[in-house]
């Protein structure tokens, strides 16, 4: 992939340096075009365009699932659209038949999305055990010491939202399999930046929104569930969780699809699907391996340069756990954030720390602008 060609797909690169992909990402020209095409069709200005385009849009939905499955390393039947990560994790949390005394393990310091759906089960007698972490990092031994005979589920963030610690999913999956524990992943801080194979990693359930590293819109995301776990979950219901008999809509038969479509409760965010379709297309065109190499290289270079300037990094420098997130601890992160913003550089402040998150269309000139701005900060 030619970086200059890729950057032309993101017009904001002409006037600002955006390094906040761990929060919400800009949309590319293909994504904007896909949204415009969908809205134009639904607008009805073209006499030949179907305003009620449910059937016409189905091939796009099907291809979006195929693209998502390719990125995840699975079959499209195992993938379903969701509005956001929280919705997906609640499908799992509310779908399992829990028993009093069951336990769930979660790394301490996780983003609330990966905590609250499971803490909410405490009212049903389910206990949550937190894996001890050090600035978002933990080891397999930390997990193993936290697991108990009553532990039914381990849910981890693929990448820690603040430190950027990247979990070794395959090693964790093997540990969960050995201990007969279900393995769930909140993938939002890695999907679209790092390569993934859910089947090789032994992941039972995964949820991710599409507005961060995938660079689609807010309000659309992906759920993955193994066939074996699907049989254990009581899915939410709406009217699209199973086949629709359009001739007998008032004759109720609670029947579910035999694949991940059973988790679809109602009308989808079609504009979001159109955006995700285009975003995944650009990502696959660039190549997930190429994208990961660039993301890790950019973040590692940035971390090295910040360290040379005396910034203390929050998180590990271990290359095995590298992601696209670099976070620095300093006395007044908000002041530096505002200084960067005044020079059209977008970063973020989280937990009173400065977080910088480049992705694969960023280049050395973007990093140099950040470093020059930091050097001029007083």
Overall description:
The protein is α/β, with parallel strands linked by helices. The protein folds into two domains: 3-27 and 287-375, Aspartate Aminotransferase, domain 1 (Alpha-Beta Complex), CATH 3.90.1150.10; 54-285, Aspartate Aminotransferase, domain 2 (3-Layer(aba) Sandwich). Helices cover 36% and strands 14% of the residues. The protein has helices at residues 3-8, 29-43, 54-72, 85-95, 116-119, 140-146, 169-178, 227-230, 270-286, 288-308, 333-342, 364-375, and strands spanning 17-18, 79-82, 103-107, 127-131, 151-157, 182-186, 205-209, 221-225, 312-313, 326-329, 345-346, 348-350, 353-356. The strands form three sheets. A seven-stranded mixed beta sheet has the order 2-8-7-6-5-3-4, with helices on both faces. The protein has a four-stranded antiparallel beta sheet with strand order 9-10-13-12, covered by helices on one side. α7 links the parallel β5 and β6 (182-186). α2 packs antiparallel against α9 and α3 (54-72) crosses α9. The protein is globular and about 70 Å long.
